[in-house]
Amino acid sequence: MNPTFEFSRAVTRRPSAAIVDGLRANDIGTPDLNQMLKDHAHYVATLKETNAEVIELPALDDFADATFVEDTALVLPQGAIMMRPGAASRMGEVALMQPTLQKYCKEVRHITGSGHIEGGDILVTGREILVGRSDRTDALGVSELASIVSDWGYDVREVFTPEGVLHFKTDCSLLGENTILTTKRLAASGCFEGYDLIYTAEGEEACANTIRFNQFVLMPAGFPKTASVLADAGFLVREINNSECAKLDGGMSCLSLRF
Ligand code: CIR
By the 8 A CB rule, do 173 and 212 touch? Predict the structure, then answer.
């Protein structure tokens, strides 16, 4: 099994009515819960279509962004690392995720220092763990993660998320062990030297956040040029409506923890 894109499990959390209060960089409208629930169900069904087990956690009415479970932890084959979100309103989500990971992971470790780090800033590739500093992830968070995973044999490389972009993975995703989908603005920083890159089409930067999950690439619907680039490159693309999560700067990777 290739642990960077072949998974037997995913954890998701049902969106709650509190999403109307979810964090967002720009207000482009209030997310509609019914539409988000439909899209979430489609997302979960697509993960299950690959024969993976999906652990569906209940909605959390006290945490507006809790459906974006990816930010609470990094899960590796050796164990899970509980994050320390840079968004104060999201800090409490971590403890609520821990019991689930405790049940399925060999070991659970914690970011305990004063630094901050969110899962959306972490891209695990076939050879290293890239962590983008952002408004949510700082140098202390990155260095603590590096020391936590070093005895598991991982190299952590600190990179930078472009100004105005929420998370590192807002602008990139792993398609294969050494293949990355990225926007040109992120690749311009030089952070992906040595990788095979596929660029989002002009004007379609908002679809850079996809997930390779077993045989599928799940991508947000409505980005036809990039979808056909991916299909032409041999990927089996599944498009999921993401209009409501996009209002909260969320995308395909945010909605699950995969391991
Ligand atoms: C937030 O600002 O924290 C949420 N509204 C969106 C989180 C998206 N998560 C991700 O990209 N991993």
Answer: yes
Ligand 1 atom at minimum distance from 253 CA:
12
Whether 169 maps to a domain, the answer reads yes
Question: Which CATH number goes with the domain that contains 93?
Answer: 3.75.10.10
Would the CA dihedral through 28, 33, 38, 39 be positive or negative?
positive
State how far the Cα of 116 lies from the Cα of 142, in Å rounded to an integer.
8
**Ligand 1 pocket residues where CB is under 6 Å:** 22-24, 65, 68, 70-71, 87, 90, 119-120, 166-167, 170, 248-251, 253-254
Active site (annotated) includes residue 245: no
- Domain assignment present for 116: yes
Q: How many domains does one find in the chain?
A: 1
Kindly tell me the sign of the dihedral angle through the C-alpha atoms of 135, 254, 10, 208: negative
pLDDT (tens digit, 9 = 90+) per residue, 132-151? 999 999 999 999 999 999 99
Q: Which of 40, 105, 167, 207 is catalytic?
A: 167
Residue 22 Cα to ligand 1 middle (Å): 9
Marked catalytic residue, from 105, 191, 207, 254: 254
pTM assigned to the model: 0.97
Residue 3 lies in a domain: no
Which residues have C-beta within 8 Å of that of residue 235, sequence separation ≥ 6?
A: 175, 212, 217
Residue 201: DSSP 8-state: P
For residues 8 and 50, the answer to whether their CB atoms sit within 8 Å is no
Dig out the tokens for 149 from the structure. 């995973």
Domain coverage including residue 159: 9-258
Nearest to 208, CA basis, from 229, 193, 234, 226: 226
In the predicted model, is pLDDT for residue 1 greater than 90?
no
